[in-house]
Each structure stands twice: as C-alpha cells, then as structure tokens.
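Extended Data, panel c. Modelled sequence:
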Amino acid sequence: MPDTVLDKLPALFATVLLGWAAARWGWLTDGARGGARGSAGAGAAADPARVLSAAAQYLFIPALLFRAMARLDFSHMPWRTLAAFYGPLLVMVLVVYGFKRWRLQGGGGMAVSSATAVVPATRAVTAGFGNSVQVGVPLIAALYGDAGLAIHVAIVSLHALTLLTLCTVLAEADLARARLRRAGGGHGALGATVRATLRATLIHPVVLPVLAGLAWNLLRLPLPTPLDEWLQLLGSAVAPLCLLLIGLSLGRQSLHGTLRGVFSIAVLKLFVLPVLVWLTGHFVFRLEPLPLAVVVMAAALPPGSNALIFAQRYRTLETETAAATLLCTLAFALTAPLWAMAMARL
C-alpha cells in the first residue's frame, strides 16, 4: 500500500480509539467522574453519541452535501466510467436490500418495530458505501496520480447523492409500511405508504440539502465566498466526527452477535463489489486501463463512516455498522495491495 495511505490510517484509527476511550471512561457525560458507566440518570439525560450524531445529521453533513451539489460540474463528468462503477454498485445494494427484506418478511419481523423495518436498507448502505474520501483520495492519488484522482473525484461527487438518497427512500418506504401494518391499514394503504414515504424523504436531512444544492446548481447561481467558506468549514467536521462516533458506538456495546454480519459485509465490500465492477467495466463498457483500475480500486474501499450516521439515524445495526467500518478498514490494509497488483497486470 502507498506510504501516503499508510500515513492516513493511523490517524483514522487513533480518532476511532479516542471515541472508544471517551465511551468507556465517560469523558463526554456528566458521569465522567463516576467512572466508565457514570450514573443512570446522567446517561439518560444526554447520550453523547446521540447528540454528536444529531449534529452530524442536521448540521455538518447537510452543509457538505449542499456545497458538493452546488459546485458540481455536470458538463465534464466521465459518464461511461461512472456507469461502470455505479451500475454494479446499485445492483448489489438492491440485491442485499431485497434479500434481507425477504428474510425479515419470512420471519414476520417487518412489522415488529421501526428499527427492524430499516434493517435491510441499513445493511445495504453499509455493504455499498465506501470510504471514498479519507482512504480513497490518498490511495488513488498515490497509485494513479492526477489523472486517476480526477476520475475518482467524479465518483466521490455522486457517492452520497446516489447511495444515501436511494437507501433513505428504501428505509422510509419500509418505515411507512411497518407503521401502516401496526395501525391495521387496509383500503388505500398503498397511497398512504407513498405519501408518507415522499414526505419523510423530501424533508430528510440527507435528501433535502442534495435537492437544494442541485436546484442551486441548475439555476447557475454562484456561491458567494463567505457562504462557500462557511459550508466548507461545517463540512470539514464530518470526517473526524464520524470517526469519533464509530469509537463511541464500539465502546458502549459488545460485539457479540455482530461478527456474522460484519463478515458478510466484508466479503461483499472488499471482494464481491470490486469483481462486479471489474467485469462490468472490462466486458460491458470496455474501459481503458486507467479508468478501469480507478473504478475497481474505488469499489474495493472499506465501508465509509456515513453508513454509521445512517444506522444511528434509524437506531438499528449501530454496533454492527461501526464494527464493519473499523474491521474492514483494517482488512483493507491487506486487500488493497492485492487489488492494486491485479490492476497493474491489466
């Protein structure tokens, strides 16, 4: 693995470790002086993970997404290369979602709780959303230089827009269906589900800033420098905050019962997805060696921390998602050189 990536990884793990230590020793709660657990009342009064997650969801991530969409230059996008990446990615995400939803329906679990209802969408976004910035940018820049980085930046620009929006729609649709089942919805249930899904999706803290930024872009409105600087400042908090949340989630709960799900995510994200992207890019889109190598390496990236924000918003699979993000990043130190060598032989 390139030295620039190796230089990045210790900082990522150190931030996760900081969050873990904060959870174990109660640094962010009123019960910090009382030890690792603190008082029950203090924990109930203000869960630091929930507070930080809400700040990320409602303040920092919306600023990042709005700025990214408002500044996106659609006229210079490598659409064929993007199709080779996002085509198999979206297929895999939908298959993971469909399979998990089928399993839950078979067990009658879809109507049990809101947390259960969004398990399929959460597992799907974790299996598909890669760490394209913190790990991907230095990796691609080191391996393929400016030419490769330009392709990767195009992938990054649509990453959150595509995956978070899709999985948000799926999650909100499942939530609406679950609520209607518990309420005994009958005639007109389909229309009510659609209305509830659209309403919840449009006011979602991920989708709304994306749509607002897209509208700003299409209207060709300039971003005033003070506004651009403010949005950039807010967006810069996303990476360390998400890493801290991974550590907080791991420090509060046991990994017991999560390793099977983590293993399946690792197989899908580190092996299955890059193979699918390579097959699509090589045999369907006939990409040149450089763009093909970039999309395959982008597909092979470990899960990104935005998947945990998704899980925390819906309060489901939080520990599994945090563990998958951390352990897959560790495993990526072994799988990345294998994929880089394979791409070098093209």
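Residues 136-182 form the longest helix (47 residues). This feature is highlighted in the accompanying rendering.
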